[in-house]
Amino acid sequence: NLMSVQLINPKNKQPLKLIGTDFVDVSGNKFPLVRGVLRISHQDNYTDNFGMQWNKFDKTQLDREELGHNLSNKRFFAETKWDTQDLAGKNVLEVGAGAGRFSKVMLESTLANLYSIDYSDAVTANFKNNSSIAGDRLNLFQASIYEMPFPDNSFDKVFCLGVLQHTPNFEASVSALISKAKPGGEIVVDFYPINGWWTKFNAKYMLRPVFKRFDHHRLMQMVETNIDWLMKVESLLHKLRLGVLTRFLPIVDIQGTLPKYLSKAEQREWAILDTFDMFSPEYDSPQSINNVASMFERNGADVTFAGFEYFEGFSAAVVRGIKRA
After folding, report:
1. What angle is formed at CA 253 by the lines to CA 81 and CA 144, rounded to 5 degrees?
2. What is the C-alpha to C-alpha distance for residues 136 and 217, in angstroms, rounded to an integer?
3. Are strands 113-118 and 91-95 parallel, antiparallel or unpaired?
4. How much is the pLDDT for 2?
5. Quick one: pLDDT at residue 148?
């Protein structure tokens, strides 16, 4: 694969060259190609829960056109407002790809060259899902948002969806994204919004301090064991017009966050995935939209949009910006 973006060792900035199955810098530091993915970061880290969840649920959130599933596509284009024709031949960076739901949208809907990273072993699921679609337009890396294997000013577009709230330092993460865009390049992010003091007044934030310390396999087992009665109680509360009380149930907000077209079995699968995703991450830091817009401005990008974007009855907190020259 001839990459049009030079790869570097993020620690010493030396260029990387493929020798055998390793990428090597002039000092002799090696990064292995494992299961189709260049591994820059240690394979065990604070994102182990995501590696586990995306390899287990590798197909759950992927759009399946034959079933009329296109939520990822609708969300991606509602949030980025990108033009599919305009992306042909452009170098695009995706940070925090998970199992590749948005990688798939990019590769199927555009002719962009996609450079996609995730800090967890979810990259293995992404490779499995998407390597056959794109030929050599998909370049996958296991790497940290703070140590990406690319020089600054490398990309025409950068996007990071569903990720920033799970990084150790939100503003440092925004800064890292902006640094990799070319001057005049566009950066798009979404994140969990703070809507007021009540944002953290719910089962998720009350129970997270306990549950995030659980062994991930034990936590997954707990979620799977309890999901059926929790879904019944959630449904009953909505029927009784007591939906406001569902915030105190240790389950994802099914009415508010899951696609309406799912079958019962699919709904259960999404509920397990999203409930595990509520409690397992090491970090979970919702932000106000104004705060994230200020981070863009402080770190060298002019904000072009800061607010909510709407798609399929859902909303997302989005900030878009253009990197200053």
Report:
1. 55
2. 35
3. parallel
4. 53
5. 98
**Average pLDDT, stretch 74-95?**
97
Is 218 buried (19+), middle (13-18) or exposed (0-12) by CB count in 10 A? Answer: exposed
Tell me the pTM. Answer: 0.94
Element (H, E) at 116: strand 113-118
CA 98 to CA 184: how far, in whole Å? 27
Strands 301-311 and 181-191: unpaired
Distance CA 275, CA 265 (A): 15
pLDDT top residue among 237 and 64:
237
End-to-end CA distance of the chain: 31
* Angle, CA of 233, 237 and 241, to the nearest 5°: 170
Residue with tokens 């966050």: 257
- CA 81 to chain CA mean position, Å: 18
To the nearest whole percent, how much of the chain has pLDDT over 70? 98
